[in-house]
Amino acid sequence: MLINQRRPKKGCALLLFIVLWHYFFSSSFVLRLDPKIFWPTIFAIAFVILLMKREVLQGTELTLFKFLYVGFLVCFLSADAWTSIINDVYFFVYLGVAAMIGRNITTTKVMKTTLGFCVVHLICIYIQVFVPNAYKSIILPLLPSYSHADILYQMTYNASFYGFTVQTSMAAMYMTIGAICAAIFAKHSKRSITKILYIVLVALFLTGVLFTTRRGSLLALCLVLAYIYFDTSGGKFSKIVLLLLGIAFLLSVGVDWIPGMQGLLDKFDRLSGNMMNGRQTIWGNALSNFWNYPLFGYGVGNSSLAGGGALIDNAYLAVLVERGLIGSVIWFIPIIWTFIKTYSKKKHASDMDNIAQDFSLYIQLLFVIMSMMENYFGQALAMFIYYVAVLCEDFTRMRGNYEID
């Protein structure tokens, strides 16, 4: 039986803060515990809480666990079964922790805490851009020493900024998550001043993505924000006119004045306007090598073997070569089913103030788009925020709570 609660207990709220701390600060060896110890420990706590409350798996949670279990069995037939099994276990761990969060904490609380951590990353990127000496003396020492040289080189010569991460792709992901949360709060805010503040925050996150020079992340975020914009109440015609006027204004004054835009334009110049950045060669190698193990794949976590030693920045292809035809079908069935179900419920919903439903749909949409350019659906840690969004909506619906801000 699910507990019908509106406010999370202090213990659960603290646990949420600790979990999201380790998720968003995963790049720092100083500020977090060993993930191989921390996440299994939290999973064990989640399991104990489940038993103590005498709750059972149900709904989307049960479906995801069922397909994960079947996919786990398929790992035994992959080319590297042992590595595949070890890496696949982490999906169970992150799903279990996400289920604990969705079951015991309101979506609004989850989103506000998530947004808070994203703002911290936003501040770190702005410090790196505008106060580089402070960044070098305060923030950089908290990151692994092996990354310092590359971070300093990129921020000096290529105008690519990492913030509080060791990869620009991670920084961009945090910016996009923060922008989506802020956009949802702006959509549901009743007070004009609060709505304006959230819209300003969305703009700041957009410039944060620009500072990372991640073109795919920028495109994906713009598409999701456009969907959110047209998903709000009001006439579609007036929205289209307003959007066109905004685009015309930017073109008339020039886009190079936007913070971070010049670095992105310079990256286009260096790569002759090509957004693929060598990905097509890696994808071609992966497709050719896929036929070595077509049914059960190379094993979870071994996509680089098929990519000729390089990471496959496409989740759909990475999952295919890692899990094979059979394993990838098993993997994507619940993802596709969940997306269709969420979209259908959203389309026919009478309650337009359901924050949980928006959070789930927009994060899923982000993953669907970004998985064409990054391995979002194929990485356990990246999937954690996906699981959180999906299960928050599912448990909110089962509790009968339609949360509004």
Can you put this structure into words, describing what you see?
The protein has one domain. It has helices at 10-24, 35-52, 59-75, 81-104, 107-130, 132-139, 148-158, 168-188, 192-212, 215-231, 236-253, 261-270, 279-290, 303-306, 315-347, 355-370, 380-399. Helix content is 71%, strand content 0%. The protein is globular, with a radius of gyration of 21 Å. α2 (35-52) packs across α4, α3 packs antiparallel against α4 and α8 packs antiparallel against α9 (192-212).
Task: Estimate the strand proportion.
Answer: under 5%
**Which percent range fits the helix content?**
over 70%
What coarse outline follows from CA principal-axis ratios?
globular
What string, H for helix and E for strand, traces the elements in order?
A: HHHHHHHHHHHHHHHHH
Short descriptors:
membrane, globular, mainly alpha, O-antigen_ligase-rel_domated, 17 helices, 405 residues, single chain, disordered N terminus
What can be said about this structure in brief?
With about 400 residues, the chain is mainly α.
SSE blueprint:
Layout: H1 10-24, H2 35-52, H3 59-75, H4 81-104, H5 107-130, H6 132-139, H7 148-158, H8 168-188, H9 192-212, H10 215-231, H11 236-253, H12 261-270, H13 279-290, H14 303-306, H15 315-347, H16 355-370, H17 380-399
Helix pairs in contact: 1-5, 2-4, 3-4, 3-15, 4-17, 5-6, 5-8, 5-9, 8-9, 8-10, 8-16, 10-16, 13-15, 15-16, 16-17
